[in-house]
Write a structure and sequence with these properties.
The complex is a heterodimer of chains A (254) and B (584).
Chain A lengths: L2 H13 L4 E9 L9 E9 L5 H12 L18 E4 L2 E4 L14 E4 L6 E3 L2 E2 L2 H9 L20 H6 L17 H5 L6 H11 L7 H8 L13 H5 L6 H14 L3
Parallel strand pairs in A: 1-5
Antiparallel strand pairs in A: 1-2, 3-4, 3-5, 6-7
Chain B lengths: L1 E10 L3 H13 L2 E5 L15 E2 L10 H11 L6 H21 L13 E9 L4 E7 L5 H16 L2 E4 L1 E11 L2 E11 L5 E11 L20 H8 L4 E2 L4 E8 L9 H4 L3 E3 L7 H4 L9 H13 L11 E4 L5 H7 L1 H11 L8 E10 L3 E2 L5 E3 L5 E7 L4 E2 L11 H23 L11 H12 L6 H15 L6 H18 L13 H25 L17 H4 L1 E9 L5 E9 L13
Parallel strand pairs in B: 1-2, 1-9, 2-6, 9-17, 15-18
Antiparallel strand pairs in B: 3-5, 4-5, 7-8, 8-9, 10-19, 11-14, 12-13, 13-14, 16-17, 19-20
The chains are: A alpha+beta (254), B alpha/beta (584).
Catalytic activity (chain A): a quinone + succinate = fumarate + a quinol
Cofactor (chain A): [3Fe-4S] cluster; [2Fe-2S] cluster; [4Fe-4S] cluster
EC number (chain A): 1.3.5.1
Chain lengths: 254, 584
């Protein structure tokens, strides 16, 4: 164990436990009050190592209880708090204040392409409908089900590892310009979840899923702008997964 | 108000709720009411694995697993239930694999297994590889796989519906479950769900602590709804503190990190667990490791300027191993601490993690009204329930197991009950309690704030009923909670609207936390011994003569409306194993 490094970590921890003043500029909307959405500024004292979600909580808990957003686990696993922070899709609980230039106002808006219901809360139903449409479950023929587990080599398991990380937060889909312009497009998240099964050696419905994605609202709408890959808080190579599905459609090999 | 009628209603869509739903939907018309979208549940935060004696990588069997579970729970485990848990573990894992769960694999293609705290070969000889896992996101994969199979089975979900009341109707002198009352977040509308059977699978109560691995939404809503309607709560004094939470934040860093070879060190770099648990060392059970960490801190060997944490050292492990087996937790260290785990040790402290206690059930998931009487039509599974398979301290990887085994069992039992039972009548004005609660909060002009009271509650819980407890600290907590409950009557909210009023729901959740914190503290005060997760410095030994029994806490309301808690006790079921001194 490298003790000098410890000292450095401790010193940094001690040095940076100071509060700074930041401005949160939040897109507000409540149809019970007004049909228009507006920007509202909040100034708060915050430790720069805290999360954007901590800032939103400070506002809600100490200043304005009507501020509305979804959140649960607060460490990037549950996928509740995808929002547009300084113009980029991120999870509020995985974004530290110090990493997004607190000198300037931090803008927080709902993710785009889904109907805003109140403040940062959007209607997730179309997103989950697209997910359900790609048959997001293992399909096997029942004829010779083993009594123990199915065997799968470590390599076959690794083949789809990346796309098993998806938390269905919608950061990718709601960063996609094609999705903004045409809500009928399945969107990156649904394709990622189709990929997770198409490339699983145990699955036997790859052809069906590929046909679903061969649809006019399917993978061919993707314009490889890589917004989805940039937006993914789980580090999934989303665009690559979409390309692999396109290639599978052409070669019928997967 | 809307009224719905279903055979079976499931409250909660985490692992236990969805596992139950897959079974009950096949057998009865089922609705799942969940305050979050299904894949948002905290099952997804579980990391390290799910225990089952598959013996894929070394010799193992379910009897050893049963023994470890009983010993891990400091002999407060009901041994018949632990035996079911360990036996059915094997099918539970195989079922998940068949549903599509992408477990890590051995070189010959079977499910891979790794070491975990408290799991041993042949009754404590040495650590055993029993945990089936998918990298360090096993809970995530279980949650996703169960949701995928719910989609496949066409399970009907009511998302963002908060269940706020349990309906009970007396039929021929027996209290039956009649349904539940729910609040729809999107509209503020009240929904009454009449159902032949109700399964609570609503998770834990960890948010009454400040440093916790639990989600903001883990506020004990199911426990509170049952408790307020006369259902007792069992063993609430037993709460698990996971040894390795990220310092100050409480975010979980899996025990799998130590299963992969990670080591705990104090400020002198010493591997201190060798002193406290010579055989299992860093893989002793969680209560033992958490106490050891705090002992190091109290004796001045903690790290940092304030000496308030220790280190989880992974620096001796190859980076490829960390990338393959522990990708998520190493990323947490980078994201939240700015630390590179390849080269720097990670500052950690114990974090409030898991409620061993909860709504008492038998092994079919049927809820008990007292030590023996079943409440017809009422079921519970997962962290909300107390079967009791975890006793005084749960072993790591046994909760992902619990939700699958007892989620499945309760789903089958509840649906089969619904197939043969009739609906019982709803009570008069079934929505009255919820309407009154909501109107009171919405119209209140009191000067107390939810956030202030919650913060004070969390601080008193951390200070007084955490890893070390004494009569004095617990009494301090009891008094403080009573004061907070009084002040809660004057709580007011700012959002008076109907649409997505999370301000209102946070106020209701705080009410639940306060009520459950009181039960916890009162139960802890009465248990004058140390056992598992409940450690009394003034009574440092286990006392099997007086306390080898489960606590049963009942809510009593006097004629003048004053509330109190009555404690009773329930015998522990012992089959194979006689209590022994617990050493790791």
């Amino acid at each position: 164990m490298a003790t000098p490094v410890l000292d450095k970590v401790e010193a940094e921890a001690a040095a940076s436990s100071h509060l700074i003043t930041v401005t949160f500029r939040i897109r507000r909307f409540n149809p019970e009050v007004s049909a228009e959405s507006t920007w509202e500024d909040f100034q708060l004292e915050i430790d720069p190592k805290e999360r954007v979600l901590d800032g939103l909580h400070k506002i809600k808990w100490d200043v304005d209880g009507t501020l509305t957003f979804r959140r649960s686990c607060a460490h990037g696993i549950c996928g509740s708090d995808a929002m547009r922070i300084n113009g980029k899709n991120r999870l509020a609980c995985k974004t530290l204040i110090k990493d997004i230039n607190p000198e300037k106002p931090i803008t927080v808006e709902p993710i785009k392409g889904l109907t805003v219901l109140k403040d940062l809360v959007v209607d997730m139903e179309p997103f989950f409908q697209a997910y359900r449409d790609v048959m997001p479950f293992l399909v096997t023929k029942d004829t010779n089900e083993p009594t123990r587990e199915r065997l799968q080599s470590a390599e076959d398991r690794e083949r789809f590892d990346d796309t098993t990380k998806c938390i269905l937060c919608a950061a990718c889909t709601s960063s996609c310009p094609v999705f903004w312009n045409d809500g009928q497009y399945f969107g990156p998240a649904a394709i990622v979840n189709a990929h997770r099964f198409i490339f699983d050696s145990r699955d036997e419905a790859g052809e069906q899923r590929l046909e679903i994605l061969n649809d006019r609202d399917g993978v061919w709408r993707c314009r490889t702008t890589f917004n989805c890959t940039d937006a993914c808080p789980r580090g999934i190579e989303v665009t690559k997964a979409i390309q692999e599905v396109k290639r599978a459609l052409i070669t019928r090999r997967y | 108000m809307k009224i719905h009628k279903y055979d079976t209603v499931i409250v909660g869509a985490g692992g236990a709720g969805m596992r139950a739903a897959i079974e009950s939907t096949k057998r009865s018309r089922t609705a799942v009411l969940t305050k979050l979208y299904p894949t948002r549940s905290h099952t997804g935060a579980a990391q390290g694995g799910m225990a089952a004696a598959l013996a894929n990588v070394e010799e193992d069997n379910w009897e050893w697993h049963t023994f470890d579970t009983v010993k891990g729970g400091d002999y407060l485990v009901d041994q018949d239930a632990a035996e079911i848990l360990a036996k059915e573990a094997i099918d539970a894992v195989l079922d998940l694999e068949k549903m599509g769960l992408p477990f890590n694999r051995t070189p010959n293609g079977t499910i891979d297994q790794r070491r975990f705290g408290g799991h041993s070969r042949n009754h404590g000889e040495a650590p055993v590889r029993r945990s089936c896992y998918a990298a360090d996101r096993t809970g995530h994969m279980i949650l996703q796989t169960l949701y995928q199979n719910c989609v496949k089975e066409g399970v009907e979900f009511f998302n963002e519906f908060y269940v706020l009341d349990q309906l009970i109707t007396e039929v021929d002198g027996v209290r039956h479950s009649a349904g539940v009352v729910a609040y729809e977040l999107a509209t503020g509308e009240i929904h009454v769900f009449q159902a032949k059977s109700v399964i609570y699978a609503s998770g834990g109560t960890g948010k009454f602590f400040k440093v916790t691995s639990n989600a903001h939404t883990l506020t004990g809503d199911g426990q509170a709804a049952c408790y307020r309607r006369g259902i007792p709560l069992e063993d609430m004094e037993f709460f698990q503190f996971h040894p390795t939470g990220i310092w100050r934040m409480g975010i979980l860093l899996t025990e799998g990190a130590r299963g992969e070879g990670g080591i705990l060190r104090n400020k002198d770099g010493e591997r201190f667990m060798e002193k406290y648990a010579p055989v299992m060392k860093d893989l002793a059970s969680r209560d033992v490791v958490s106490r050891s960490i705090y002992t190091e801190i109290r004796e001045g060997r903690g790290c940092g300027p304030e000496g308030d944490h220790v280190y989880l050292d992974l620096t001796h492990l190859p980076p490829e191993q960390l990338d393959a087996k522990l990708p998520d937790i190493t990323e947490f260290a980078r994201t939240y601490l700015g630390i590179e785990p390849y080269t720097d040790p990670i500052p950690i402290q114990p974090t409030a993690h898991y409620a061993m206690g909860g709504v008492p059930t038998n092994v079919e998931g049927e809820v008990l009204a007292d030590n023996t009487t079943v409440v017809p039509g009422l079921y519970a599974a997962g962290e909300v329930a107390c079967v009791s398979v975890h006793g005084a301290n749960r072993l790591g990887t046994n909760s992902l197991l619990d939700i699958n085994v007892f989620g499945r069992r309760s789903g089958i039992a509840a649906a089969e009950y619904a197939q043969k039972a009739d609906f019982v009548e709803l009570p008069e004005n079934p929505e009255a309690f919820v309407v009154e609660q909501i109107e009171r909060l919405r119209e209140s002009t009191g000067n107390e704030r939810v956030a202030t009271l919650r913060k004070e509650l969390q601080e008193t819980m951390d200070a007084n009923v955490m890893v070390f407890r004494t009569e004095q600290t617990i009494k301090t907590a009891v008094e403080k909670i009573a004061e907070l409950r009084e002040r809660y009557k004057n709580v007011s909210i700012q959002d008076k609207g109907k649409r997505f009023n999370t301000d209102l729901l946070e106020a209701i959740e705080l009410g639940n936390l306060l009520e459950l914190a009181e039960v916890m503290a009162v139960s802890a005060l009465a248990r004058k011994e140390s056992r598992g997760g409940h450690y009394r410095e003034d009574y440092p030994n286990r006392d099997d003569v007086n306390f080898m029994r489960h606590t049963m806490a009942y809510r009593e309301v006097g004629d003048d409306g004053t509330e109190s808690i009555r404690l009773d006790y329930k015998p522990v079921v012992q089959t194979r194993y006689q209590p022994m001194e617990r050493k790791y």
